[in-house]
Amino acid sequence: MTDIELARIAGGTVALHDARRNVRWSVELEPFEIGVYPVTQEQLAELLGESASHPRRPATDVSWLRAVRFCNAASEWEGLDPAYTYDGEEVTWHVDADGYRLPTEAEWEFACRAGSTGPHYGPLAEVAWTSADGVATPQQVGAKLPNLNGLFDTLGNVWEWCWDLLDPARYDDYRVFRGGAFADDAWSVRASTRRGGAPRMHHEDVGFRVARGGFDSTDAAQGWSAEADLERAAIDGPLPPGWTPRR
Fold it and tell me: Where is the Sulfatase-modifying factor enzyme-like domain (predicted)?
């Protein structure tokens, strides 16, 4: 299989923001690894049998569930412990596993920012494919400048799936994707922008990059916990204006 190139990210602190809940918080991260590039069509084709008409472009039209499946397949190929098990569409992350997985939101934003505090880690025209470039499709990975962690395309080109739930109180099982894409304006192509979709959803501008790192804990790591997901899903009192009940 075409190698998945990883960058080692030292531990540190990242500040996160949920605009819907108007909540800000900080996460202490242990060291982890993350893909230098988004997973490419070529890599997806080799492991999952997808077509690769443009081998060096990011793999897109990939659902969150398929991204998770890719992570396990890559782990098995390299003899690593798979990070995920399934019960139907219910996915469990085994936090202590050393295999490939999706980054948590906290890991993704920390790796993307690379020490920067503004919305971008460099001049947007130099680091990200956006609507300003006038392109109609994702572009080959690595064609713009990297951030100080040596990561390419974390902003622009394609959105990238993360492990976390978007907002379980309002959107049930929707998962987060981050970073903006080739057709988005600068407002969306920022390190802090959060969007998401259903686990089976797939679009031409949504892909993913992998991470690695196992931790000595259960159902909690790197800014995520199953307990916090349950707490966020609970709503006391009437729904806020404009909300519809979860299906």
Answer: 11-212
- In the sheet that 159-165 helps form, which strands lie side by side, from edge to edge? 194-197, 175-178, 159-165, 206-207
Quote the domain boundaries for residue 31: 6-213
> Per the domain annotation, does 182 fall within a domain?
yes
Enter the tokens of residue 30: 């242990």
Is there a domain that residue 220 lies in?
no
Q: What is the pLDDT of residues 82-108, one digit of tens each?
A: 999 999 889 999 999 999 999 999 999
Give the total number of structural domains in the chain: 1
Does this model's pTM top 0.90? My answer is yes
CA distance 72 to 32: 17
Read off the pLDDT of residues 206-216 as tens digits, 9 standing for 90 and up.
999 999 999 99
34 alpha carbon, distance to own chain's centre: 10
45 phi, psi to nearest 5 deg: -60, -40
In a domain, 232, yes or no: no
Tokens standing for 74? 């890559």
3 state SS of 126: helix
